[in-house]
Amino acid sequence: MSKDKHVSETPATHLLRQAAVPFSEHPYEYVEHGGALEAARQLGLHPHQVAKTLIMEDENARPLVVVMHGDCEVSTKNLARQTGAKRISPCSPETAQKHSGYQVGGTSPFATRKRMPVWIEATLLDFGVMYVNGGRRGYLIGIAPSVVMKVLGAKPVEASLPKS
């Protein structure tokens, strides 16, 4: 990691540095509604290796974090079944921001304002490195999926659907 690529600290990177977790930094030009696919395109990464962080909620409005491939959608039915919920749906952007403490488009699964269970798409664990938001729009971090599991106490889930 070169010094000129360093992005100022976020709650996510602060937590990872405190825990002595190795990660790489990958700033890019944020594009409104570009998402993980735009980040992957700009950084020359495979979109399946770039994860998006989604804040969702169950039927009782209990929030949860879902880390999913950037080129896939979440099957909320499969997710609900595997997490023991009756129903899961995405939070509104305002609610997601309130739970995570991050601006939508810059949501990291690390150091969220509210402690939430984290579910990670199982096939992301197949990569040596995955790329996930570092806590700010236009900023990904490269990190080992096994480390994500350990630091977040994440549980694997099989809930990916090809993007329609």
UniProtKB/TrEMBL annotation:
EC code(s) of this entry: 4.2.-.-
EC supergroup of this enzyme: lyase
Region annotation Disordered: where it falls in the sequence: 86-105
Compositional bias (Polar residues): 92-105
InterPro entries: Prolyl-tRNA_editing_YbaK/EbsC, YbaK/aa-tRNA-synt-asso_dom_sf, YbaK/aa-tRNA-synth-assoc-dom
GO biological process annotation, one example: translation
MF terms (GO), sorted A to Z: aminoacyl-tRNA deacylase activity; lyase activity
Keyword Electron transport included in the entry's annotation: no
SUPFAM superfamilies: YbaK/ProRS associated domain (SSF55826)
YbaK/aminoacyl-tRNA synthetase-associated domain mapped to chain residues: 38-146
Pfam family, one: tRNA_edit
Keyword Glycoprotein annotated: no
Keywords linked to the UniProt accession: Lyase, Protein biosynthesis
Family to which this protein belongs: Belongs to the prolyl-tRNA editing family. YbaK/EbsC subfamily.
PANTHER family found in the cross-reference section: CYS-TRNA(PRO)_CYS-TRNA(CYS) DEACYLASE YBAK (PTHR30411:SF0), CYTOPLASMIC PROTEIN (PTHR30411)
Listed NCBIfam families: YbaK_EbsC
Name this protein carries in UniProt: Cys-tRNA(Pro)/Cys-tRNA(Cys) deacylase
